Amino acid sequence: MYQKLILASGSPRRRALLSRLGINFQYVTSSISEDFNENNDYTEEVIRLATMKAYDVARIYDEAFIIGADTIVICENKVLGKPITYEKAFEMLKFLSGKTHEVITGVAVINKNKKFIKQFYDKTEVTFKNLSDELIKWYIENDEPYDKAGAYGIQGMGCLLVEKINGSYENVVGLPVSKLFEVFKEIGISPYRGL
Ligand SMILES: Cc1cn([C@H]2C[C@H](O)[C@@H](COP(=O)(O)OP(=O)(O)OP(=O)(O)O)O2)c(=O)[nH]c1=O
């Protein structure tokens, strides 16, 4: 049976990741303001925001399965969001230099009419090299850290900052597609026959 699928995201990276699964989907950007509450449990908070994004889009598309996601970077118990200024980006990358941090993506798949809701998160450890001030400046000037949590994108020039990762690469980019695929199987969405 055909199931309408919508990615509730304005992120081109999430779109590209979902496209890799070879399934049909639309995307609609949610208008949720990301007010991350650092006093709550971090995993609960990314799931809460992912769920809000999905429900925002479900107000119009109540018959569809909708995916919402939210990604944060945590280092030494500090949450790093998206930097707004050059100085903030520099500060974040300097802080991450030579350390291991966690990237957590919360995901919610919902269908309002069917009263379906599935929420999960994935966590990946990323270890940065020791970054010189020159490298950080070069990176900020040449790439776009501004719309990315933690001020870097592993999928672009940001790969040069990374020594190693432990866990899902796609989760760092913004959507843990391998875990998401398990939910798709449950709701009958699959690029393969017989699954
Ligand atoms: C750590 C890291 C984050 N990011 C991105 C993923 C997310 O798009 C962004 C975190 O912000 P999010 O608030 O999770 O997502 P978004 O605002 O870009 O998109 P939407 O809410 O519409 O879905 O940081 C990378 O692209 N690469 C990386 O290596």
UniProtKB/TrEMBL annotation:
This is dTTP/UTP pyrophosphatase. The active site is at 70 (proton acceptor). It comes from Deferribacter desulfuricans (strain DSM 14783 / JCM 11476 / NBRC 101012 / SSM1). It is an enzyme of class 3 (hydrolase). It catalyses: UTP + H2O = UMP + diphosphate + H(+); dTTP + H2O = dTMP + diphosphate + H(+); N(7)-methyl-GTP + H2O = N(7)-methyl-GMP + diphosphate + H(+). GO terms for biological process: nucleotide metabolic process. One of its GO terms (cellular component) is cytoplasm. The lineage of its organism: Bacteria, Pseudomonadati, Deferribacterota, Deferribacteres, Deferribacterales. The record marks 13, 71, 155 as: Important for substrate specificity. It is found in: Cytoplasm. Nucleoside triphosphate pyrophosphatase that hydrolyzes 7-methyl-GTP (m(7)GTP). May have a dual role in cell division arrest and in preventing the incorporation of modified nucleotides into cellular nucleic acids. Nucleoside triphosphate pyrophosphatase that hydrolyzes dTTP and UTP. May have a dual role in cell division arrest and in preventing the incorporation of modified nucleotides into cellular nucleic acids. PANTHER family: BIFUNCTIONAL DTTP/UTP PYROPHOSPHATASE/METHYLTRANSFERASE PROTEIN-RELATED (PTHR43213), BIFUNCTIONAL DTTP_UTP PYROPHOSPHATASE_METHYLTRANSFERASE PROTEIN-RELATED (PTHR43213:SF5). Keywords: Cytoplasm, Hydrolase, Nucleotide metabolism. Its EC number is 3.6.1.9. Its cofactor is a divalent metal cation. It comes from the Bacteria. Belongs to the Maf family. YceF subfamily. Belongs to the Maf family. YhdE subfamily. One of its GO terms (molecular function) is dTTP diphosphatase activity. Its main location: cytoplasm. InterPro entries: ITPase-like_fam, Maf-like.
